[in-house]
Structures are given as C-alpha cells and as structure tokens.
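Researcher: I'm preparing a figure for a lab meeting and need a structural model of a single chain. I don't have an experimental structure, so a prediction will have to do for now. The sequence is pasted below. Please return the structure as tokens so I can convert it later.
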Amino acid sequence: MADCQDCHCPRHLASRVRAALEDTPVVFLAGARQTGKTTLARALVEEGVLDAYVTLDDPTQLAAAAHDPEGFLAGLPHRTVLDEVQRAPDLFPALRAAIDRDRRPGRFLLTGSADVLLLPGLAQVLTGRMEILTLEPFSQGEREGRRERFLRDLFTPEGPVPGPPLEREAVCRRIVEGGFPEACARSGPERRAAWFDAYVALVTQREVRELARIEGVTELPHLLRLLAARLGGLLNRAELARSAGLAQTTLARYLALLQTLFLLRPLPARATTRGKRLIRAPKVHLIDTGLAAHLLGLDADGLARPDRLGPLLEGFVVCELRRQRGWALPGARLHHFRTAGGAEVDVVVELPDGRVAGIEVKAAATVRARDLRGLKALAGIAGDAFVRGVVLHLGEAHAAFGERLVAMPLSSLWRSGPQRRGGP
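Model: Understood. Here is the structure written out token by token.
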C-alpha cells in the first residue's frame, strides 16, 4: 500500500471538480470533516484554476460574512474558494444575487462539512446555479496510486479484472486504517486511535452544536458506537432508541444530524417488487471502517476473528464502492436487496438506464454455490436488466458460477486498474 504519509495522495475527484468549474457558476464540494476538501481546494488555487482561498473557520472572515454578506462577496476575487460555507447560512441569498448578476462559470468553489441537500436554504437558494460533488475519504486505489475500474467494469461485457489474493491480516489492516487522510498518515494504532478520539469529539461537540444550535449532544458518541455495532444490519429505530435510552423523536433528530454530517451513511433498500415481498429498511453503514473499528475498540488482530470481520468487511466494500462512484459512475445508485424469504445481496448497483449488478461479500476463502442464492434471486427479479453478480471473497479463486455470476478476490475492487502516472 502507498505510504501516504504526507496526506496528499492525488484525488480522483479533482478532474470532476475542474470540469464543473469550467461550465458552472458555483461548485459545492461537500464531505465530512477531514476528508481532504481544504487540501484539494488549496491545490486548485496553486494550479491557477482558482484565484483565492478564504475559510470561514477564521473568526474574522466569518464575522465579516455575517455582518455584510453582499459587501463580503463583492470584495472577493472572481474565482474564490469559500471553505466551510455552512458556518455562514446568511451568505446563501447574497451568493444567489451575486451569481444572478454575473453567471460566468467557476465563480465560487464552496466547501462544507454538511450535506448541502439537508442544509436549510442552500440547495433551494442555489438551484440551477450549483453542481454538488462529494469528497469521500481515500479509496484504496488513491492510496496505491491506481485509478480503479471495478465499478465501471461491472457493466462491460468482459466484467472486472480479478486482483491478486490478500492475506487476511492485510485485509484487516486496511479496514482498521480506513481512509481519512490524517488517520492513514499516523505512525501506528495508538496514534491513529488518538486521532479518531479527537475527531469524534470535534464532530459531536463543535459541528453538531453549530449546525443544530443545540447543547445536549453528550449522547452522540454513545449512539455512534451503537451504530458501529450494528454495521451491515437493518436499521431498527425502535430497538436502537431503547438501547440508546432516547425517545424516538430525539433519536430521529440525532440520526438526521449524523447523516447531515456524513458520519451515518445508510444504504437504502432496493424498492422494486415484481411480485416479491422485499424488506424496505435501510442498512446501517458509517462513512469509514477505520472510524467504525475504533468505536468498537478493534485493532487488526481483534478484527481477524471470524465473528468480527464479516460486518466490517461488508462495510469496507460499501465504502470503497461509494468512493469509486463519486468519480467513476456518479449517476449510479447503491442499494441493498433482501426478500422476506431471506435471500439478500449486500450491494446492488443500479445505473440510470435501469441496468443492475449485485455484489456479495464473503469473509471466507471459499465460495460455495449457496453463497449465490441472493444474486440469483436478484437476477430473477431484475430479468434482462441484470448484468452481473460478483462475490468478493478472501481466497485466491476467480471462478464463474454460470452465466453472469462470478467469484473473485477482494482486491479486484481496486487492483483491476493500471498504475497511474501523475494526477487524475
């Protein structure tokens, strides 16, 4: 794996940001705290794609933006980064007015640690004027200097290229390291744990307080741990409220906050019937398996136990697919699939044209025919729209299980692309 000690591995999403700035007045680069938004934005200024960088984490800049939004914007250069813009919601109407006066592309790159679609006001104010891109933590391909092709290749006639087998211990290390740039750069488990402790404190205290204007957030770290313990399981709000000791209305508000801050990333159920009774509840997933493992107190050795690895391995694959989707197949939707009879597929990838592919994750070195039950059920429901089903496993085998069904090593997720020379 690439060292990434300087936290500056080139980001695959950068090419999409550059393209958006060429034809769109406002580009919003969203993502959780510490995913690298500021680093990417500063790099674009250094390249000359943008002219200036201003952060609203600076109290003086924030006060100026709040005091006189129109005057603040009027004093900025033509192509400016406004970092952490969610801290100044009164700026949004002034931004709309400024864009309506001058709709030249690339006027503003906004960054924010909250989901713009869930922020009051911003999405509505800038509708038709803004493109939204989400920067996830590092993918495995980014850490290794590879541009992954797995997600795209799912829908090609040839299918994904199989990668080499990995030792179980190496997989566990990747899972507990996760993809947050600074966590990846830490020298060992103890330093990484210290970073995650500080991160959880920052987000559950400062970020939630500023976003929601509430003080009683001491329950959130405990709620995050409960969610980590349910990784890959169906979200049962009533049971979770009982375990957390929260009223269901309070739980709903806290879950919405965690989702707005990108920490909670539920995987919705695929909502199609075709005569089958399907489970509708979303699955619980977090933004990063390094964070999830930390919340559960697991290091790579503890994770290697068979009863521990399965949910986090599934979460790891979901995270990697989300990260690839951002730059490779932005129009794709990710779901899970489960019938009332118990057939399930961990991840369903659906394209805008209706084609679907299924991915099943197995924390074992051997794949048996029964492991494809869910993929076969999905194929039966999707019919001609079903393109391919893949079982990702921890063994060496690359084997076909009939038409459109194949098993391959886990590393096929990121090792199927060529070594990259230079940035994206």
